[in-house]
Amino acid sequence: ARQPVIKLISFLNAATKNFVSKLILIPEGSSLEDHIHLLETRPSATEAFAAAMEHPLEQCRQRIRNLDLEGKPVKVLPFATKEDCKIITDALKKIEPAYNPNYRSKSQLKKMPNLKLILDCRKHCRLTPYSAEFRLCMDAVE
Fold first, then answer.
1. Closest listed residue to residue 103, CA positions, set 118, 91, 87, 92
2. Three-point CA angle 13, 14, 20, nearest 5°
3. For residue 104, how many C-alpha atoms fall within 13 Å in the half-sphere facing its CB?
4. How far is 13 from 19, CA to CA, in rounded Å?
């Protein structure tokens, strides 16, 4: 059992040395400061991925815009921001004092009766596998 551990450690040492040698490789004719500045100006992997995915996402948005739900055009909206989520969470806490974001299944919804009434009411809420639509009005939940 000791032999595989030694082999693993020597492999990790070699891999680390190879990785570090690539990191400290400075192109000929540039200073360390220039190299650091160049690395800092490169987009991060997340930024590069987002830029690469923009065109396919736009194609998906265009295709979805051609669809309709019950005669209404489908709207493609960006992900909710943290502020948007806070607004919704605060509203849910006002409606349902027992609101808990960790309740994620239909069976746990029974623990939040006021929220269950709203979600079950077709007049105030429409849920699909892809969306949730709330109709805000002053009417009491039926």
1. 92
2. 90
3. 2
4. 10
Q: What's the pTM value of the predicted model, to 2 decimals?
A: 0.42
- CA 102 vs. chain centroid, Å, equals 17
Q: Which amino acid is at 111?
A: K
Could you tell me if 42 and 31 are in contact, meaning their C-beta atoms sit under 8 angstroms apart?
no
pLDDT digits (tens, 9 = 90+) for 38-70: 777 877 888 888 889 999 988 888 887 788 877
Q: How far apart are CA 54 and CA 1, in angstroms?
A: 50
| C-alpha span between 35 and 52 (Å, rounded) | 25
118, 102 Cβ separation under 8 angstroms: no
